[in-house]
Amino acid sequence: MALLQAASNFDPNPAKGGGDITIVGGTALLPDAGPSGTLADIEDNSTTSDQISLYVVREGDSLSQIAKMFGVTTNTIIWANDIKRGSLVSEGQTLVILPISGIRHTVLKGDTLKGIVGKYKGDMDEVIGFNGLTEGEALAVGDVVVIPDGEIETPKTSTTKTAVRGTNTPSYSGYYLRPVVGGTKTQGLHGYNGVDLAAPVGTPILASATGDVIISRSGGWNGGYGTYIVISHPNGTQTLYAHNSKNIVSEGAHVVQGQIIGYIGSTGKSTGSHLHFEVRGAKNPF
Q1: Does the structure show a pLDDT above 80 at 41?
Q2: The dihedral of CA 40, 46, 51, 54: what is its sign?
Q3: Does one domain contain both 74 and 128?
Q4: CATH code of residue 62
Q5: What confidence score (pLDDT) does residue 189 get?
Q6: What is the pTM of this model?
Q7: Mean pLDDT throughout 223-230?
Q8: Nearest 5°: CA angle at 210, between 207 and 211?
Q9: How far is CA 176 from the centre of its chain?
Q10: In terms of residue numbers, what domain contains 204?
């Protein structure tokens, strides 16, 4: 799939940078959530989205400029692309713009990093890495700390459930093939219109529908997805296959429905062997 080049004018909104997967109304679409089901929107994040975007770095770009262009933090891009802190991006490099969502906490008097992480049920290592902090570092009043996967505890009397993102979409009956033969659904809709299908490591993953591979990332955290694949389909939707042990298709490949594209694993944010399967832009039939 050909990638668009970055907009050269001062206001990048006409193409929202470069390499967008899909453009609607002149604005690139970005994802709302990662694979775990607790990646709710970061508070105060006004961007709405249902698709993952790619950005092709142009000459003179910096991480901070790209982050500003997409309305995300620099750490968001670092985290999703496994970029070493302090490293530079190079011209022609393709970045996945996968905003890592969670809770945005403004430090109050008396707050400690340990207390903040505990309050929102976050992971200390993830918070430290995402925010560029060190364990035990003193926080200043007014600092903003992002807790990936953070959750706000609801009152015990409340029956409100965390909203699933991306479900207010059309239904394409019969369009998508179950991406695993057999397997057990261990978690229903969560995160961004995703389900978890458990099967042993090495179980083949099938392309749910015919389309083009736009992302095939192996190794690393990748925003919690680990080793994962995204396929763009002719009907304007995307399917995502995460936590794989191995991908056997590359970016730019054309695949047909039912073709083996990889094998189930437990990479990224995963506690067991399973496929995290998302449909972006349509109802998830599984």
Answers
A1: no
A2: negative
A3: no
A4: 3.10.350.10
A5: 84
A6: 0.62
A7: 90
A8: 100
A9: 21
A10: 184-280
